[in-house]
Design a protein that fits this description.
- By secondary structure, the chain is mainly alpha-helical.
- It has two domains: about 70 residues, no CATH class; about 350 residues, no CATH class.
- The protein is built from 16 helices and two strands.
- It has a two-stranded antiparallel ribbon.
- Strand 1 and strand 2 form a beta hairpin.
- Helix 4 packs antiparallel against helix 5 and helix 6 packs across helix 8.
- The radius of gyration is 21 Å and the shape is globular.
Amino acid sequence: MRDVIITMIVIGALPFILMRPFLGVLMWTWLGLMNPHRLAWGFAMHLPFAFMVFAVTLLGMLFSRTPRQWPLRIELVVLVLFLGWMLVSTSLALFPDAAWFEWSKIWRIQCGIFITLMLTRERQQIHWLVWTIAVSLGFYGVKGGLWTVLHGGVNRVYGPAGGFIGGNNEIGLALLMTAPLIWFLALHTAHPRVRQGLYVAVGLTLIAVVGTHSRGAFLGMVVMGLMLFVKARHKWLPALLAMSFAVLLPVIAPQSWFDRMHTIGAYQQDNSAMGRIGAWQKAVEIAGERLTGGGFEVLIHSYQRDAHSIYFEVLAEHGYVGLLLFLGLLVLAWRRARIIRARAARHPDQQWAGDLAAMVQVSLAGYMTAGAFLGLAYFDFFYLLLALLVCLDAEMLRARQPSQRATPVALGGWMPLAAKRV
C-alpha cells in the first residue's frame, strides 16, 4: 500500500510540475530529504522518482514564461569552483570506479540546487520551501521523539535506509539542522494551534536527537542551543525550552546514554574515537602527498574507515584546495545570513527575512559543530540552506524596488505569511 500511495503522489504531481516548475523544486526537496520511497517495502523503493521530477521540471522550465536567472552572488562562484575542483580530483582519483560513482550522485544533487536557485524567486516560494524542508525531516523528528519517549530512549533512532541519513549519527545531524527551521515557522504562523504544534515538534525533534545516541549530534545540540538563545528575538522561549529539556533528560534518556556521552571526555579509551583520529591522520597524509586529494571514498578503500568529519572528508578526497573552497562556502553562508539580518533590522517589513536568516545561522552552527564528527560534507541539506540564503537575499532586494513591493497575505489563515506582487 505504501508503494502505491507514494507512486500515486509523485506521478500525480508531474502534470502540475509541468505547468508550475517551482512545484518540482518542492517535490525534489521532499524526495531528496525525506526519502519517502525508502519507507516502502516493494517496487517503489527502486523507482527513479527523483529523475522523473527532475526531467519534468526541466521540461516545464523550457515552456514557462517565468523569468529564469541565477541570483549572482559570490557563494555561487565559490560553489561552481568547488564543483569544478571535485571534478578534477575525481578525474585523478586513486580509486576511479568508486569516485565516479559518487560524483554521479553529487552532480545530480547540485543540479537540483541550481534549479532551486533559478526558480525560487518570491517570498511565498521561500516559505513553501522552508515548509517542505521542515515537514520532510520533521516527520522523522516527531516520529523519533515519540519513539524515544515511549521506549525510554533504549532503542536508537535511525533514518531511512539507503540515503544520506540512514545511520543514527546522520539522522541526528539532519534533525539538529531542522529544529531551527521549524522554530522559524512557529514564529511566523498565524494560527495559534499550528504554532503550538510546531513548538511541540521542535521539542520532539530534539528528543529524537537524544534518541539517536549520537555524541556528535549531542555536542551540536549544545552549541545550537546557545546560538538559538543568542539569535532568538524572544529570549525566554529558548530558555524555557532548555530548562524543560534539562528536567526531562534524565527521564527520556537511559543510563547507557549518559555513559556514552561521558566517553566524549575520555576519547583515548574509546575505540571508535581513536579510529576516527586515525582516519583524520590518514586524511592529512593523503592531502600532503596529493594536491587534488585521493578522490571520493579514498579513506574507505585505503584505510577501511569513513572520515567521520565533513572537514577531513573533504581534505582527504579533494586536498587542501578543496577544503579551502568548502570552508569558504561555510563562511560565506554565515556572512550572507548576517548581511540579511542587518538589512532586515533597517526595514521592519522584512523582519521575517531576518528571523529566517538567524535560524539558518543556528542550523549552520549545528552542522559545523556536529559535522566535525560526521562525514556529511555533500549532504544536500547544507547546500539547500546556502541556496535559501541566496534566494532570500535576492528577494529582499527585489522587494525594496518601488515597482515590486510585497504586501503580506495569509495563506488559508494558518500558513506562514506570504508575499503578493502588486
